[in-house]
Amino acid sequence: MPYKLLFVCLGNICRSPSAENIMTHLIQQSGLSDRIVCDSAGTSSYHIGSSPDRRMSAAAMQKLGFKLQGQARQFQRSDFQEFDLILAMDRENYQNILYLDSTGEYEQKVQLICDFCSQYTLQEVPDPYYGGSEGFNQVIDLLMDACGGLLEHITSQESELRS
Ligand code: 4NP
Questions:
Q1: So which residues are the catalytic ones?
Q2: Distance between CA atoms of residues 58 and 64, nearest Å
Q3: CA angle, 113 as apex, 23 and 92 as ends, to 5°?
Q4: 90-108, pLDDT tens digit by residue?
Q5: pTM attached to this predicted model
Q6: What are the pLDDT digits (tens) for 64-77?
């Protein structure tokens, strides 16, 4: 069974699809595609079925050279069982995920993605939706840092992934 990661934001059209695509890219580069898999979801139902935001995809293309793939879906309770680690983009997403875990059973599985940053000190990935292109570029920079740290964390913590 591969180790399963779920990235979560509000709409699942900007931050979490970027995180999913960046992490998948890093996993592929490391030759771990059969051992770590990624998905993403939104806490809201606003954009269910939508492709990643064009502005977000343009920033990914410009900074990373690839397009963002995906179709928005809403986070659901069954995701707690389905995934090994759930990464929230900001504190509001984090709280909204934990509201759905009424017994606290899965609290250990939910973390803020910025906890894995090593270059940036921001604790949340700022919501870029109502801002300009700088915000979208910042999302990519922050997530490259966080996802690199996350991959290191997983490969060092998960015994089945250590070579
Ligand atoms: P995301 O960005 O949570 O990073 O996907 C947003 C997308 C849509 C909205 C807000 C944030 N919205 O309000 O529709």
A1: 9, 15, 127
A2: 10
A3: 130
A4: 999 999 999 999 999 999 9
A5: 0.97
A6: 999 999 999 999 99
